[in-house]
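Hi again,

Forgot to attach this to my earlier email, sorry! This is the prediction with pyridoxal-5'-phosphate bound. I've pasted everything inline since the attachment limit keeps bouncing my files.
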Amino acid sequence: MLAATFQRMAQKAVDREHEKRVPWLMRRRHFFTAAAGIASAFRGDALLRARTAIDAAAGRPADSVARDEDFWFQVRHAFTVDRNMVNLNNGGVSPAPKIVMDTEIRYLEVENLSPSYYMWHILDPGIETVRRRLARSFGCDPEEIAITRNASESLEIVQLGLTLKAGDEVLTTNQDYPRMITTWQQRERRDGIVLKQITFPVPPPSLDYLAKRIEENITPRTKVIHICHITNRTGQIFPVKRICQMARARGIEVVVDGAHAFGQFPFEQRDLDCDYYGTSLHKWILAPIGTGMLYVRKNKIANIWPMMGAPDTMRENIRKFEEIGTHPASQRNAITEALNFSESIGLERKAERLRYLRRRWSDRLRQLPGVKILNSDDPEQSCGIGFVSVDGISAPKLASHIWQKYRIWTTAVVTPSEYEGLRITPNVYTTLEEIDTFTDVMTRIIQRGSLV
Ligand SMILES: Cc1ncc(COP(=O)(O)O)c(C=O)c1O
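Structure tokens for the complex follow:
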């Protein structure tokens, strides 16, 4: 039966009309190099089939591939996840594909042979390849990319490294990531800066609304705006470019928290026109746990103090942010393989698949009484992160109940005195059966109005 499936896939003709409609970004992303990359991402006899699947998908619009279960069947077999639980919290941290895990383990074994030689002399130079690959993916100069351990480190480098004085204002929202807010609050206590957090409804009326909300809260003392590219709560995408350009014209710095954006949907630095961008790589780009990236525009590097001391000769060198003492090369060096894997799938396809999965559960649940879907449905404002709120049912209790009784793993989010619900984040390996199991369980609970 499988053989027949693969044969069918191979026979799908490439529709030239469709090819013309494939988004420019997908075409640009070195598709054939990427196709070669995926060959290494699958094991044993899956190799030839994967090639066939990729070839068969070439030129087809991303939204059509998003619904092609034969294609995603191949992708999900590159993961070794626990199929006896339904993991709908990939946004927290994602499993890496097996090829990435294997690479990490191989590097770990090598570095442990004699770390002061193998790690520092053999593996460490590989960081420059990682930097180059990340820069290509983000669309910037490698000299603007630092490799960190996570988004927290990337963002805190900028948050703590910007020179600010007492009375300077930092403007953010109450839906930004708690650790990043804590960091600004620490600067309030230490340096006397003032943090202002604005609210916004979810979903908001429009991207324009969000930009205006930020703009109207700027004062003559505002020195920094801190925003998420996509929030970790309802998955709201912000109009980053508009905010960055508006702020730059007023001499205000903008720190962009891209923890959830990089690898979830396609974009490049020029689509954001940002100066500072911090992201995790262990979320959507599927790199090893404990990897992150910081982008700093070249002419801004000298202005940011590194979190750990670096010599003055490194003032303008992006590598000053990596001066953190001894740390493993094994995780970091495996980032390249994660980029190969993600680019092989194609970010346009991945984003469409994630949107498809989100709509599959949310379109059904939104019909039920008392249910609010709080993520936007506008593709410009949302991607794979979905959010469901159920009137009269506590979100933490609901999350705990569906885990205990059905082994469905989600995360409850509570924004005090505003809203609460479950954040739902599937991944490229998620099956339709898993999505439907979640939807069925939720439907039963909502129709009964109690946790049974
Ligand atoms: C919006 C946002 N920013 C920052 C972070 C911090 O990421 P990490 O824990 O990888 O440092 C997260 C983590 O979930 C996040 O969702």
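The chain has three domains: 2-78, 102-338, 349-448. Residues 150-152, 177, 179-180, 228, 232, 257, 259-260, 280 surround pyridoxal-5'-phosphate (CB under 6 Å).

That should be everything now.

G.
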